[in-house]
Each structure stands twice: as structure tokens, then as C-alpha cells.
Design a protein that fits this description.
Structural class: alpha+beta
CATH topology of the largest domain: Alpha-lytic protease prodomain-like
CATH superfamily of the largest domain: Cation efflux protein transmembrane domain
Helix content: 55-70%
CATH class of the largest domain: Mainly Alpha
Number of strands: 4
Radius of gyration: 25 Å
Order of helices and strands: HHHHHHHEEHEE
Number of domains: 2
Length: 302
């Protein structure tokens, strides 16, 4: 059983390498532009898988002097690069498919191509499903991006399969190029989605409201056990790879000793970390009267 990020990324590399060889061979035999574009797509996926493998290994390295907050954002950067590669591949496919539509091309020996592309569909569905499970279990954006590539590849392979079957049934080679253009559209959608997700993390966008609600629920739970907590403010959070960085100001009632406030703050931090996986929580302790409401508080107040 593959349990690590690196192991999952290595499986993706092996799968893509095999499919590239099969698609290129089938494309050369049949002359199908759809099969050749599928090979290009798998080639992009292979590069993305290599990037994912490198990034997850780098992201797992502990913080150092140059990177005191860790290396987790390398995963998000890798996902952004993967998204850009997908868009480049789509451009190549559109160009070649359009050229084939204009100039015309013969497609032959379709049985080989149909068999290869059908196998590709099954293989990509199986590997992408596995990668999605590992991405969720390990909270890995890089593996999630890699899984998205392969699931898109499975979808586009199915489109190519339909195109080749139509060519076989009707004898009209134009369906081959049309299938390739449909592949390009699906690739563009997947690339833009990955770029959008990774870009949000790279610019430190706030997490979704439901995540902040879970953090506040954890704080509220601790307030029930520690009435000396007078409130909190400036709650904010951001994400880097699988790591969630959370900080807030926790206020204590007058007369609470610093030692006791420090102990209670540790309890609050523990409650948040139990609620949010891979959380790095920083709490600033301060007296209740230290903040006077101004009506311009930029973050949530409790």
C-alpha cells in the first residue's frame, strides 16, 4: 500500500510514462491527431507528475533559517506550474487539430487506436481515483493537482475514443480533429481551475467562511471552560500547502495572571489544532481593556 506523497507521485509518473509510449505508438500507426494530442496531454501530465514529486519532497522538509515558516507553499507553486503547462498543451492541440481540419488527413488502422485509448481511460480513472484519496488523506495540493490532470486525461481519452469510433463508423476523418479540439477545451477548463486554486493560496487569501466558523467554535468551546477569557479579535488564517497558519489576539479578564493566561492560551491552541488538521496556531495574549472598538476592525471579533 502506497501511503506517502512521494510514493503516490511516483505511481503517477510510472502510469504516465507507460501511457505516453502506448499513445505515441498508436498515433504513429493510425495517423490520428486525436491520439497524438492525447500523447502530448499525457506528456504534460508526466512533467506535472515529476514537478509534484519534487514539490512534495521539498514541502515535507522542516523549516530552516531561510524558510522559517516551512516549505509547504512549494506545493502550491508546483500546482500553478502544472496549470500553466496544461494551458500550453491545449494551445498545441488547438493548433494541430485546426490545421488538420483545414488540410485534411487520413486515419487508418483504428482498431489499435481504439484499444489503446480505451485502456488509457481505465488506467487514468484508476490512478486518478487513488491520487484523489491520497491527496485528501495527506492534505496535499500537489497530489490533488496531479489527480486533476489524470481525471481530465481520462475524460479527454473518452472523448477521443468517441471520435475514433465515429471515424470508424462513418469513415469521416474530420471527427478525429473535432475530438482533439474537444480535448483542448476540457484541458483549458482544468488548467484554469488549478491556476485559480493555487493562485488564491499564493496570495494568502483567507480560508472559506466555514473554516473560520470551525475555528471560532473551538474558541467558544474553550471559553465555556475558562470564563477568564474575555474575548478575542484579529482572527485570521491563511494556507501554505497542507499547513494552515492561524493567529488571533486572546483577551483575558482583569486580574488574570500572565502564567495562567499562557496556560489557557495553550488550551485554546490545542482545541483549534484538533479541529483544523495541520494547523500552526499563534495566540497573542492581552488584557481585556487593551482594545477600544473603533468600528474599523478588519478581522473578526469575538
Amino acid at each position: 500500500m502506497i501511503r506517502t506523497k512521494s510514493g503516490a507521485a511516483t505511481l503517477s509518473i510510472a502510469s504516465n510514462s507507460t501511457l505516453i509510449a502506448l499513445k505515441l505508438a498508436a498515433g504513429a500507426i493510425t495517423g490520428s491527431i486525436a491520439l497524438i494530442t492525447e500523447a502530448i496531454h499525457s506528456g504534460i501530465d508526466l512533467v506535472a507528475s515529476v514537478i509534484a514529486l519534487i514539490s512534495v519532497r521539498r514541502a515535507d522538509e522542516p523549516p530552516d533559517v531561510e524558510h522559517p515558516y516551512g516549505h509547504e507553499k512549494v506545493e502550491n507553486l508546483a500546482a500553478a506550474i502544472e496549470g500553466m503547462l496544461i494551458l500550453v498543451g491545449a494551445g498545441v492541440i488547438v493548433y494541430e487539430a485546426t490545421r488538420r481540419l483545414v488540410t485534411g488527413a487520413e486515419v487508418e488502422s483504428l482498431g489499435v487506436g481504439i484499444a489503446v485509448i480505451a485502456f488509457s481511460c481505465v488506467a487514468n480513472v484508476a490512478v486518478s481515483a487513488f491520487l484523489y484519496r491520497r491527496a485528501r488523506a495527506l492534505d496535499s495540493p500537489a497530489l490533488e493537482g496531479d489527480a486533476a490532470h489524470l481525471s481530465t486525461d481520462a475524460l479527454t481519452s473518452f472523448g477521443v475514443l468517441i471520435g475514433l469510433l465515429l471515424v470508424e463508423i462513418t469513415g469521416e476523418a474530420a471527427f478525429d480533429a473535432i475530438a482533439a479540439l474537444c480535448v483542448a477545451v476540457a484541458i483549458v477548463v482544468a488548467g484554469l481551475r488549478i491556476l485559480t486554486r493555487s493562485g488564491r493560496v499564493l496570495v494568502d487569501e483567507a480560508p472559506p467562511p466555514e473554516e473560520l466558523d470551525r475555528i471560532e467554535a473551538a474558541i467558544a468551546s474553550e471559553r465555556q471552560h475558562h470564563p477568564e477569557i474575555a474575548g478575542y479579535h484579529k482572527l485570521r488564517a491563511r494556507r501554505a500547502g497542507s499547513r494552515h497558519h492561524i493567529d488571533l489576539h486572546l483577551q483575558f479578564a482583569s486580574g488574570t495572571t500572565l502564567e495562567h493566561a499562557h496556560t489557557v492560551a495553550h488550551h485554546v491552541r490545542g482545541a483549534i489544532e484538533r479541529e483544523i488538521r495541520h494547523a500552526d496556531v499563534l495566540i497573542h495574549v492581552e488584557p481585556q481593556e487593551s482594545v477600544k472598538p473603533t468600528g474599523r476592525e478588519p478581522f473578526r471579533s469575538g
